[in-house]
Structure formats: C-alpha cells, structure tokens
Amino acid sequence: MRFSVSLHDADKSHTALTEWRGIRKNFGLCMLINCVVYQDGKKLADIPVAEISDYLVRPGAFVWVALQDATEEELLEMQHEFGLHDLAVEDARHGHQRPKIEEYGASLFTVMQLVEPVAGSSSELNIGEVDVFTGSNYVLSIRNRSQRGFLGVRERCESEPELLRFGSGFVLYALMDAVVDRYFPIIDTFETELEEIEKAIFVKGTARANIERLYDLKSRVMMLKHAVTPLMESAGKLHGGRVPQVSSGVQEYFRDVVDHLGRINGLIESMRDTIGTAIQVNFSMVAIDETEVTKRLASWASIFAVSTAFAGIWGMNFKAMPELNWEYGYPAALLVIAATCSTLYWRFKKAKWL
Known about the structure:
Layout: H1 7-26, E1 32-39, E2 42-46, H2 52-56, E3 61-68, H3 72-82, H4 86-94, E4 100-104, E5 107-117, E6 125-135, E7 138-144, H5 151-158, H6 161-164, H7 168-181, H8 183-200, H9 207-235, H10 251-314, H11 329-350
Helix pairs in contact: 1-3, 3-4, 5-7, 7-10, 8-9, 8-10, 9-10, 10-11
C-alpha cells in the first residue's frame, strides 16, 4: 500500500503532532538531533521545527534538520514542512533500501548504507542507513539503525563558510563523503584479517577453521560491496552531464566522492579474488594432507602385505615342504620376514612416504 497523505490531512494533524512531540521530548524520547538554519555560509540559529516554514521562504537561507530513527509521525511532519514526495517518504518509512539517488522535481532523495563494526565484536557488521532529502533550501537527514552520528560533518561544514555558501548541495556532499570515508577502515580491517588467514593456511590442522573464516570474511566483503557499488553507479549523475540543480556548482566535490567509491570498489574486487584464491589454496593443502595420509597407509599396507604373504605360504599344511623338517626353519622364516619388511620400510622412508 502506498504511503501518502494529503496536505489538508497534514494541516489537521500538525498541531496534534507538535503536542505529541513535546510529550516525547519531556520523556526523553524525541528523535530530533538538531534543526539549524544557515545563510550565506554562516549559522543563523537553532530553531524549533514549527519555525522551519518561516525560514524556507527567506532568500539565501536553508534549513538542515537531522533525525535519528524517525517515526512515521515525524516523517509526516517533515513531509508537511518541506513538501517531500510521497514515494520518497514511503521509502524512508520502510527503510532497508538499496543505495540510490533519485530525483523528484528539483529535490533529491539519497539512500546510503552505514557499515559499522558491532561493538565488542571483531567479525560482525551492523548495516545502518541514512536517508537524505535535499532541496534548494533544505537538507533533511534521517539516520536509522546506527549509533554513530554526523556531528563531525556539521562542524566541518560550519568551519568552511566559503563552501557552505553553496548551500544544501555542499551539505549533501559532506554527508556522502563522511559515509564513504567510513568504508576505508572497514576495508583495512578486512585486509588485515585476510593476511592473518593466509599465514594460517600453511599451518597443519587449521584447514576447517580457515575455510570458515574465509567464507565469513567473504560474506562481510559482499555486505560492503552491496553498499558501495549501487551508490557509485548512482552518484555519477551528480557530476557528469546534466546534473541536478541541487548539485550545481559542487560537481567536482561529488566527482571526488565517486573516485573514492571507485577505489573502494576496486579494493573489494581485488579482495574477492584473493579470498577465492585463498580458498582454492586451502583446498589444495587439504588434498596434499590427504595424499600424505594415503601414502602412509599404502606404505604400511604394503609392509604388512608382504609379512602376510610369507606367513600364508609357510602356514600351508603340506608334508613335502622342506622347511618343516629343518631345525632352523622358524627363525629363518622370521629373519626373512623382518629383512623384507625392513627393506620396504627403508625404501618408503627414502621416498618420503613415511
């Protein structure tokens, strides 16, 4: 079912939603991180949500709102304030979207995945999401399923007023750049783990553990790839050819983001190839170990087969066998068996089968 709301319904519910938000704030449940208005590259003030519409009509000003794990009611309110498209709001409400950048008239809807290590675990990843609505006079960022915020991005933008003059387009770039930069430490962690596994491949008795670690690493690499590749494909529209109005003037910055994404994607592909090679080498080491065991078993089987053959011959009950009446027949038979087995053992040892 499509999520949509008429402007009339939004107007009727606006007052009730404001009151409800106040109740949540009193109980510490408000998901609003900050709501700030900027003009000519400088911060004017922190404002309440109810005053957003007053600043949207102000020439040269734009509003930047940040939410965390926004509820349906908060999305409804933001839709009313900024005039967001129903389809974009529906995607943000459901979450778990594929990374993408979509145009809705003069505005952009951007979805990026946040890949973060789980606290207290070195092998688990948490996949969060940040949805960014960008218009000529507003930026709305909604962070979901992630504990790491973007306060550093806001500080960076405010410290560069000459770039912040570009408006909401530069803020979108700063958010994208922050998300992409967080992928590099993940890649470094993967590479370090892969190097450790490669060293363990040639240690006897670790084959099963190595295979499990390699497949676990491969699954995490694919999680990162699913976050990087679609975003790289979509971000190309922000710097080449007909660019959206929002990114006009900051195309070179978005090109830098695409370059970073291309580099990460190349590292991921190289890592996938290395993991595949490591898996094949590990299987080869298992086959070599199995061959060594087979050689040992075959060698001992040959030695005992000779002993069994001699014992079988001399164990036949025929009166005409000369060895039966010879005084030294039994010790001589044992000596022949021992000499033959010793010779076979020496030959197998020399051939490194034993």
